[in-house]
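Researcher: Can you fold this with adenosine-5'-triphosphate in place?
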Amino acid sequence: MMATSDAAEPILVLRQIVKSYGGSAPAVGPVDLTVRKGEFLTLLGPSGCGKTTTLHIIAGLLSPTSGTVLLAGRDVTGIEPPKRDMGLVFQNYALFPHKTIFDNVAFGLRMRKVPKPEIHQRVTEMLGIVGLPNVENRLPDQLSGGQRQRVALARALVIQPTILLLDEPLSNLDAMLRKRMRYEIRDLQQRLGITTIFVTHDQDEAFEMSDRVALLEKGHIAQLGAPEDLYDRPVSRFVAEFIGDANLLPGKVVGMTNGLVQVNIGKDGNFSATDTTGSLKAGDAALFMIRPERVALLHASEAGALQAKVLKRVFSGELINLELETTGGAKITCSKPSLPQYRDLAPGHDIWLRLDDGRALKAS
Ligand code: ATP
């Protein structure tokens, strides 16, 4: 795997990028982002948050209203796309329908006036790398969706770009193929060590493929980090809710002990939690967050445990999802593996739970 430590060399830097379409707030920005050489970075977020706009500014397909794009230390803000040395794969692949697969992949090399024998050698080699030998003479509509996707990848990669840009490249594939292509693309990216920026609104896709994820909210980066950072230490309600499932109980900070904050959530009392932004102080309104799988279930009372009733039980095959209500009135969702000890927890059942691994977020 490529080294993507904090010390890795920056390859792309966005400095104070703003894109305004004339509305009251800019569609994007200001955004500052540093992409490291060899990393797989995903721009993730809900529809309209500015993922595609940001990617198109990086590619040079859109000019920012203000700000700078630096590629390998060079200011490329005013440089047109073909001179940016980036490979692009779009959602619809954008293959030339009347050109053969060979000619599709060779396109960028011909534009760059690469000698004929070298074109032949590089196209053949790249089709081998993406797992598509012997299709050079076919037309795009003589391939399956997954194969067309690989041709689009080969076409983007054959020019040996500094950065590979992928704009929702899997959304036209069926669910099974989509999953398989996630691993294929990640594997290819690691084998070639190519810096990749990927756009998706799908959290699973982002988590399974990326070294780091930038979660966008209304044109801003809400949080940037490894998937584990976003999941375990969300800095806001938006991040906590967009990434996975979260119990978010409103409360108040009542003290600090051993680096943890104490959050009072009302009748159920106080709970220790890690402050994800390190900025909470006594008296602040806060949200106590605990992920459903971290809620511990007990069959008997013990010190520090909360009594609760099972309101609802949903069996999803691998998981049992329980909706619980504590004696203090808090509604808590809990998910457990579908093992015998959890299968008989029907509505009405009394249970005890512990909320030991919580996080404290600023109330928004
Ligand atoms: P999606 O996942 O739906 O593609 P996105 O996160 O990629 O969304 P963008 O396409 O970057 O979002 O759009 C960001 C915002 O800018 C949206 O509010 C969108 O309506 C607006 N926008 C995008 N293009 C234009 C345009 N050409 N003119 C005016 N507004 C635009």
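Model: Folded with adenosine-5'-triphosphate in place. The two ends are 39 Å apart (CA to CA).
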